[in-house]
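Minutes, project check-in
Item: structure for the 297-residue chain
Input as provided by the requester:
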Amino acid sequence: MAAGAADAVEFQPGIRRRRIRWRRYIGLSVPALIALVVIVAGVFAELLQTHDPEFIDLAARLAPPVFDGGTWAHPLGTDELGRDIYSRLLHGARVSLIVVGIVVPGAALFGTLIGLVSGWVGGMTGQILMRVVDLQLALPAILFAVLMASLVGPSLTNVIVILLFWTWPSYSRLVRADVLSLRERDFVTASRSVGAAPWWIMRKHLLPNVLNTIVIVMTLEVALVVLAEAALSFLSVGVPPGTSSWGRMITEGRDTMNVAWWPIWLPGLTLLIISLTGNLMGDWLRDALDPRLRNLR
């Protein structure tokens, strides 16, 4: 009897680790499925749409969605100009995918480079680079967006430039903090003692050790970039009129929100779900890549 009890106690940690592992995978499955649906919707928007997203049909103005007494001709209803909300949401997903696909990798690449150089070189060069980061953080992105829109007009290119300008410093600060710690480690000191070039050390030793941080920040930045693009479009300094965007759909639905809830609620709920998805995936990656939690996996 005592031996059986001892065996049960011995196997309990393994059972606990397996349960934690499965809970984490289940926790990832729902956000991953939502992200996959958004990607498919954006990539295949033309195939999945039921109407031209910018086609105006005043005869079908403010038609309710099918679950609120509407018809399957417009499954999610229409807006104040009779445009199909379902088709506009699909093309809005494409706009968000384009912005995220350019801004997040671009900001990660540039910000990581600045952080590596600043942390490794140090001295006056590192301080100058960090003051540039501080200066950029002090500039309000919204005012910069309004200035660009007033000079050249709202466009998707402006949105991408503004968000690139706005998001790269977060990578620089985190990467620099990691590099300042790593540069004093024994394996870096050994490489320097045998005459390894600084760029070789950064590429072989520093970058692989900060990669986990970069991946986690990139995942968390997805939600921020989607919301920022929607905010700029909501303020009419983002994508131009005639382009389906979740933020522009919300600002266009304000005038009729007392009469019809769906033109503003449906894109708003879509933004909420996407933001939660990005944050949940970022939290999962942070837990999965954190070395302090490896004993639990």
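Outcome recorded: The two ends are 30 Å apart (CA to CA).
No further action items on this chain.
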